[in-house]
Fold:
Amino acid sequence: MDSPTTYHVQSLERAAALLNCFSTSEPELTIGELARRSHLPRSTVHRLVVNLVRLSFLSRDPLTDRYRLGLPAVGADRRRRGE
Structure:
């Protein structure tokens, strides 16, 4: 059995990479921008984003088709930064 330090869940790592693409200077991103920044295929990004929206980690602006961090992700980021 793998130890906790060597056990990797690829989909979780990819989802975290997408969440880390957002910043205070660029709080909204498109699927294409997320794909470029994360170096993941656009189809993979779309599949992950659909699930992150479903879980409220991302929200989508239907007028601009851009995504931003949802409340769970914002709260986790603030806790990580000690706010």
The first strand starts at residue 28 and ends at 29. Residues 42-54 form the longest helix (13 residues). Helices lie at 10-19, 31-38, 42-54, 71-81. The mean pLDDT is 88.
